[in-house]
Amino acid sequence: MKLRSIELVVPGAAAAAAFLTDIWGMAPAAVRCGTHYLRGSGTDPYLVAIEEGDEGFVRSTTFVCSEAELDGLRGRVAASGLNAAPAVSNDPGGGHGMIVELPEGALFRFLASTEQADPIDGRDLPVQLTHVVINAKDAEVTADAAESALGFRVSDRTKGMVFVRCNDSHHSTAFARAGFSSLNHVAFEMADMDAVMRGIGRLRDHGMAPAWGPGRHGPGANVFAYFIAPFGAVVEFSTAVEKVPDDYRVGAPEDWTWPEGRIDQWGLSDKDNNALRAAEQRFRFRREWTPQPLETATV
Ligand SMILES: [Fe+2]
């Protein structure tokens, strides 16, 4: 199981795609029916899909998995009572599976039998997505559903978040204790710390300063730099997220405290809490499909 992509609807899709290619550092993969597909250097056919719409929202966050994993998911999701429907992907890479609505509306799509792309060169391209973080009113309820229905596992809990993994990467998603339900941010994995630093410089060349970072987190130990994209979403350059064993001990908030005045390992940068909190409320989730029994899959 692996996080692959996020599918967004954005007013001004072409401008958002231009920011992600010309400044953020992605490569165009395809434009289909007005949707811009943007990729990184790795084997995922795309990482971000941007579709034009009157209002910004998240259509789905997509994970790819094996047919066996999909079979397991189908049973657990059906038993969970969560809203779900079979799904066939017309996005690059194709595949089939299901889309699931988590308790506060977050939409996770799971696809098997997807095609991969040939990797491409580019030291400033993101390699892949590393995590998509979701805001929740009750992060524990959503995390419980991710564990019981999706087979994900909680890695750590902090005062602010529940970090959840779907493979040996410390987290592929996290649920923030935000008091509302929305997209928190999308994190792109860069090849190394130099690529993160060059990315910060590239955005500075275009008059954009980090909303937070550079820094190194506690849980996951990844390097980060957060920006508010011109199209409104919070995006992150990240690298070096920790790999964890199966028996990783789940950390509790009291395991992840900071000295006075610190909120990351390095303490280099200020965090623009007000701007980030406003941006984190811009992209909600919108379910535009009718729940259906997963047994009726026609694929
Ligand atoms: Fe992050």
TrEMBL record:
Family matches, as Pfam families: Glyoxalase
Domain of life per record: Bacteria
VOC domain boundaries: 128-240
InterPro entries recorded: Glyas_Bleomycin-R_OHBP_Dase (IPR029068), Glyas_Fos-R_dOase_dom (IPR004360), VOC_core (IPR037523)
PROSITE patterns: VOC
Protein name: VOC family protein
Species of origin: Sphingomonas tabacisoli
Lineage of origin: Bacteria, Pseudomonadati, Pseudomonadota, Alphaproteobacteria, Sphingomonadales
